[in-house]
Amino acid sequence: MTEENIITTAEGAGGERMDSLIKNYILKHLYTEDDSEIGLKDLDDSAVINDIVFSTDSHTVDPLFFPGGDIGKLAVCGTINDISVLGAKPIALSSAFIIEEGFGKDDFDRILRSMREVSIKSKVPIVTGDTKVVERGGIKGMIINTSGIGIRTGNLDKNLEEAKRYREVKSRWLTDSNLAPGDAIILSGKIAEHGISLLSFREGYGFESEIKSDVAPLNGLIDEILREGGVVSAKDPTRGGLANALNELSEKSKVMIEIWEDKIPISNAVRSACEMLGLDPLEIGNEGKVIVGVVKEKAEDVLNAMKKHPLGRDAEIIGEVKEGKGVFMETIVGGRRYIPKPIGDPIPRIC
Fold it and tell me: Cα separation of 69 and 217, whole Å?
């Protein structure tokens, strides 16, 4: 078998190679015409069928425990966030465990307690699931799959009605294709903390200060900004980071996105770590941040609403949508840098 005929970790890490795998194989064989409002071909974070939002996610993070969280917390938050960024209210989750023979019951108990804590905090119950045990060496530790359903709410309807006061809005949901020239781009907080946290803990890098993962459920924050109104699109920048998420928004909305380097929130610890390791923080995954597109007339109001929530205290307006295509960044020194979609996530197995 030739190298080009095998699947590598790069094909599961976000970016161009994962796009290619999905479009050339998964869509080729699994996509069929159906009645879904948002379906497989749209490649959004969730699907919509009869106003029911559905999403699923599998988690293979290494290590299973890391500063700021563990695989259980990550699994619950990941699916809650995928449903929330479409503008829906997550109402129930399933959870399936694939466990390696010999895995410690104390660690399993710790992971389950973590899942329960997030479920209670976010008010999204885990209502069904499945458990399998595979032979030793079949996997590394455990894999968790979580699926979830969400419903449309009056807050989403009111939010979009507010946006429609200023311009036409194409979709009934906060889809990737809903941006238009003039919209503002808001980022809820500091980037790259999840990926750098896992990398530093996994490899034993001794940075001056511990960097913790940002993993968190976003449904409360998103509900707050929907109450303010004017949000047209939302996306959590997970695999491939901010660069990948912005490129997906740009491609699907057929617009250019310009961001400003001096407005992108990033901690000094993460910046120093990235410089030391030769990594671009724009390409590193996050698990508790959201990018939102907002009609320009409501940008400051939405920003202020976001800043009132604990997960949005460091939020900033980081750019704007223009005619054209691609993602560009106005640098601190006054230059202009093209931001391509990453080939893959530079830090594997972070989710």
Answer: 12
pLDDT 10s digits, 287-321: 999 999 999 999 999 999 999 999 999 999 999 99
Q: Enumerate residues 6+ apart whose C-beta is below 8 A from 167.
A: 180, 182, 295
Residues, the chain:
351
Within this chain, do residues 24 and 122 fall inside the same structural domain, yes or no? yes
Buried (b) or exposed (e) across 324-337, using 16+ Cβ within 10 A? eebbbbbeeeeeee
Say what the alpha-carbon torsion angle 31, 340, 262, 184 is, to the nearest 10 degrees. Answer: -40
Confidence of residue 18 (pLDDT cuts 50, 70, 90): confident
For residue 203, what pLDDT band results from cuts at 50, 70 and 90? confident
Dist CA 205 CA 99 (whole Å) = 29
345 found inside a domain = no
180 lies in a domain? yes
Dist CA 213 CA 284 (whole Å): 12
Report the percentage of the chain scoring pLDDT > 90. Answer: 79
Residue finishing a domain among 129, 151, 173: 151
Judged against a pLDDT cut of 80, whether residue 116 lies above it is answered with yes
Q: What is the pLDDT of residues 152-172, one digit of tens each?
A: 999 999 999 999 999 999 999
The two structure tokens encoding residue 329: 């960044």
Residue 235 near residue 176 (C-beta atoms within 8 A): yes
Same domain, 181 and 328: yes
Of the residues 102, 130, 151, which one is the last residue of a structural domain?
151
d(CA 126, CA 147): 9
User: Are 169 and 21 in the same domain?
Assistant: no
